[in-house]
Structures are given as C-alpha cells and as structure tokens.
Amino acid sequence: MMKARRCYSQRMSFQVFGIPVSRGVAIGRAVLVASSRIDVAHYFIDDASVASEIERCLRGRDEVVRELETLKTDLPSDAPHELAALLDVHLMLLHDEALTGATKQWIVERHYNAEWALSAQLEVLARQFDEMEDEYLRERKADLEQVVERVLGALAREQGKSQGNAASLAQRDFAGEDPLLLVAADIAPADMMQFKRSVFHGFITDIGGKTSHTAIVARSMDIPAVVGTREASRLIRQDDWVIIDGDVGAVIVNPSPIVLEEYRFRQRQSELERARLARLRHTPAVTLDGERIELHANIELPGDAPAAVEAGATGVGLFRSEFLFMNRGGQLPGEDEQFEAYRAAVEAMRGMPVTIRTVDIGADKPLDRMSPSELRHEHVLNPAMGLRAIRWSLAEPSMFRQQLRAIYRASAYGKIRLLIPMVAHLGEVRQIQEAIVRVKQQLTDSGQAYTHVDLGVMIEIPAAAVMLPLLLPHVDFVSIGTNDLIQYTLAIDRADEAVAHLYDPWHPAVLHLIASTISQARQAGRSVSVCGEMAGDPAFTDLLLAMGLRSFSMHPAQIPTVKQRILRADAARLSSAVPQILASEDPATVAETVFAGQRQRTTPLH
C-alpha cells in the first residue's frame, strides 16, 4: 500500500535563509525533530538496547492493535459500515511494513529510541501522502497520523511518563556513518543542555534571534547555527544532505557536488585557523601597552569548567546556576545537590575565581514546573517583563536562602563571587543582604564552614545603569549583561526573529549606558566586567578596551579569538576614540574607521 522510502537523494537543491548566530560551516545529514500533538522523547540508544527498543516499539503497536480489534468487536449491530471499514484501515496501517519495517530501520541504523524512530517515519510517509495525486489517498494521511499518535501514547504509558518535546537528547557518542545536523522548529534552553553534549555538528531552527538562548549555546559549542529560518523544519526532510553556512545565515539543502566541495574546503580552512589560535592558550592576555586583561568563561554546568581551563580562562565570570534547575521533571535541586555542583566547579577551576549567578529563571528559560508564585502571574503576556531572575528568587525566600547556603558552603573550597541578576531597585539589594546575613548565621549555628563572598549585581536593566551611583556603595563588583541590557533599552524581544533586525548592540543609547557603567564603577573602585555576548564578539573588543573594560567573560570557545585581538591592541591609543564614537550617529562605522589601523598591528604568536 505504501512504499517504504527514506532518502531523497534525487531532490532538487534549494536554499533557506535565516539569522547567522554561530560562525563556520557544517555539513551533514538532517535530523528532524518534528512537532507532535503529544510529547515525544528523542534520544539515542546504545548497541545493546537496539533489540529491546524494537521489541518495545512492537509492543506499543500490538497494544494499539488489540485496542482497535476490541473496538471493532464491540461495535453495535446498527453501527455504520464506514466505521468498521475505518478501523480496518487503521489496522492495516499498523501492520504495513512501510511503517513498522522502516521504523525498525531508524532504530537499527540511526540508534533512535522507539518514539523518535516512529515520528521520523511518520514524517517521511506523511510527505509521501501529500505528494499523491489521488485526493482519497491524500486524505489517508490523517488516518496514519491517528495510528501513530495511538502508538506513541501506548509507548508513553509504558514509560510511565511523556518526556519533553523537541530535542531531549541523550548524552551518547553515536553519529553513525555521517555527521548529523539538527533541524527543529525551536529548541528550548533546557533541551539545549542535552544538545550540548550530543552528536550534532550544527543546528537550524525556524524561530529565534542572535541572542536567543539556543544561539548562545551554539556559540559556546563553537558549532555553526542558523536560526529564524521560519520554514526550514517544514522544507527539509529526514536524511537530506545539508550545508549550514553560519557566516551568512544560509542553509543549502541537497547541494551539488561542486558546492559541496567548496564548503568542504572552507571547513578545512576553519580547522587550520582554530589550530593556530589554540597556540595562544597559555599566552597571558596583555595589550601592547601592558594592560593585563582578565578573560573569564561563562559556563552552564560544573562539567563545563574543565573546558574553560583548557581554553585558557582566568576564572569563571558567569556560572548560570539556573541550568541546575532544569530537566528535572519539576523537582528543584536540594541544598546539598547544589553545594556539590558549586564545589565541583570551584575545584575544577584550580583556585581561580568562580562567579555564581543566582537562578535566572523566567523569559526564555522557564522551569518545567511552575511555582505557586508563578501560577499567580501566569497571565503575564511578556515573561521578559514578569516574575523572573531576582524577582522570582525574592518571591520564593525559602528556595533563595537554600541556594545562598549552598553557595556559601562551597566558598570554603575556593574563591566564589555572588552575582544577582536583573536588579532594578536598591530595595532588592537590601533584601539580598538581609538574606545573606540570615544564611551566614544559620551556617555558623550549624557549624558549617564558609568564607567571604563578594556580592555583585548585573547591570542589564537601564534603570540599574542610570542609578548606578546609588548601587555601588552596597556591592563589591558589577557585571554588565549586554544581552538583556540591549533588549530592555531598545524594547526588543531578543528571541523574536520578527524584530531581530532591530536588536542593535551598536545603538548609541546602549553604548552610552555601557561606557557610563564602566567609568562609574572604576571611579568608585569597583571591579566591572561584561558577561554578555558583546564580550565574546571580537568586533567589540577594541571598543570595550577603549571604554576601560579590563575583565571580559565569554564562552570558552570564544576566548582565543578575543585574546588575539587583545594582544594586538594598544588600550591607551584606543581610549582617545571613545568620545568621537559615542557622539556619532553611526558608531559602528566610526569605530571601524578609527580602529582599522590598530587592528592591522600584529603580535607574534607563541
């Protein structure tokens, strides 16, 4: 009835364009994670589990067969003949080799779990139905979808739960014969943490912007990515050969041999450049005029710390603790679990400082459960403006004190700094200080060791930048979160590709806020760093140095490129250009012109 067909090698080549968010070239087979009306788990299985996974798939199929046969047997005598005929069609589909046989192929050849294999084959067959000329046969696609949904439901019941949608991927070293590229409508931040340790060489999404969390994680992995393509997940098919051009935001599907070879050459050139930059790993980041610069790393989990050390980081400038709270089925981590995670990160950094940001839940990083406070605020249409970050922590004082206790306990094992996100009111700082006093007393009373922890605030709301003189006497350091600072200054949802073109880090208002924050913090004797995406973008290195920034925090993969720019910079000479750039209507063009000569100066590679 249906022809089992998986590969589309004869399809015409075409291109899809989106937003380039992580540079480089990736070439591989497309792996689609399609949307489903029920949640579907997507993960790889090992060789030993292939047979049992096939058996699980068949058990799910057989359960649905029994359900349908029971329904057919129990039909009343006066039931319409068409109803029995429909059940026969569904039973026939369940036994069709184009569904069951090809699904087993996905499990055997690609090591997909049963749910992923079934939904992958549904995608293939559904498109075949769409291409049929006969209207009656085209309409049978709905029957196929209903049958597959029933099997997926049976598998979910067997597992006892239905796992997260769109890329809940196992941490397994398996890629088959060809490199794989992930194609999805969207990838949630929690799922990206799974993706971060998976086998994919690049990814493409329909939605997202330059500083959406999926884009940030892609840059941290140093793999090519294009987001905001709008229709890539609909146009690209399972196993299509795809090229991701992360430099220009192009996705080339089923490329010609000539195009493929050209991009393979570019891949080899990029690998040579990475190897050259890797030689700078142990070179101190010092400008030509002798200014020593701190290059810290942004990390999501303790396991990221060794990569930071390997990249030559001088500390962790941002530990995003919220990722300890995700992918947990709604259960928050306890104090002891958090303590072990923070201690592991501190010990992995070998005496270098670790800046831990308190949980920054909300906006593009929701938990997989809602707290009572969040339920009271679920009517908020724009979560970026709602109960998130420090607002959420202060609304959940027990949870917040638990996190503070874990952080302070870990301070006994190395230098820790405490960073508070999304501060906008001096009253919030005072509440935080009161919570810290209470936590320290609790630890003292229970005989648990801790040491001094510097307190800092993130400057990511314009109000905080404007009122900085009022905040500085109460904190030890500040960290500029440029991603949200740009978002809130320009009223741009940075995850929305519809307004992505308006997200402008070169906007004069943004640059004035950054320059003012750096200047005021230095004058007050407080250390200041930038931990947003601007810190890891070499296009802004000269400007931030010129503004007086001496501490950058970025993803480990970005450190070598930024370090190279620093080694070729004369900070004193650069600083003279700041007034001209800030006074300009077009700061990007002026900065490029003024700094061009400085960028041409080189320093020997070590």
What features would you describe in this structure?
The chain has an eight-stranded mixed β-sheet with strand order 1-8-7-3-4-5-6-2. Strands 15-14-13-12-11-10-9-16 form an eight-stranded parallel β-sheet. The protein has 606 residues and is of the alpha/beta class. The protein folds into three domains: 36-159, PtsI, HPr-binding domain (Enzyme I, Chain A, domain 2, Orthogonal Bundle), CATH 1.10.274; 172-275, Glucose Oxidase, domain 1 (3-Layer(bba) Sandwich); 284-569, Alpha-Beta Barrel (TIM Barrel), CATH 3.20.20. Residues 1-9, 161-173, 369-380 and 602-606 have low confidence and may be disordered. 46% of the residues are buried. Helix 3 crosses helix 4 and helix 11 runs parallel beside helix 14 (397-410). It is globular and about 85 Å long. Strand 9, helix 10 (305-310) and strand 10 form a beta-alpha-beta unit. The chain contains 24 helices and 16 strands. Helices cover 45% and strands 13% of the residues. The protein has helices spanning 50-73, 81-95, 97-110, 114-130, 135-159, 189-195, 213-221, 232-235, 257-278, 305-310, 335-348, 372-376, 390-395, 397-410, 426-445, 462-466, 468-471, 482-490, 508-523, 541-546, 559-567, 571-575, 578-582, 587-600, and strands at residues 14-17, 19-22, 25-33, 180-184, 200-205, 225-227, 241-245, 250-253, 294-299, 316-320, 354-357, 416-420, 454-459, 477-480, 527-530, 551-554.
Brief summary:
The protein is built from 24 helices and 16 strands. The chain has helices at 50-73, 81-95, 97-110, 114-130, 135-159, 189-195, 213-221, 232-235, 257-278, 305-310, 335-348, 372-376, 390-395, 397-410, 426-445, 462-466, 468-471, 482-490, 508-523, 541-546, 559-567, 571-575, 578-582, 587-600; strands spanning 14-17, 19-22, 25-33, 180-184, 200-205, 225-227, 241-245, 250-253, 294-299, 316-320, 354-357, 416-420, 454-459, 477-480, 527-530, 551-554.
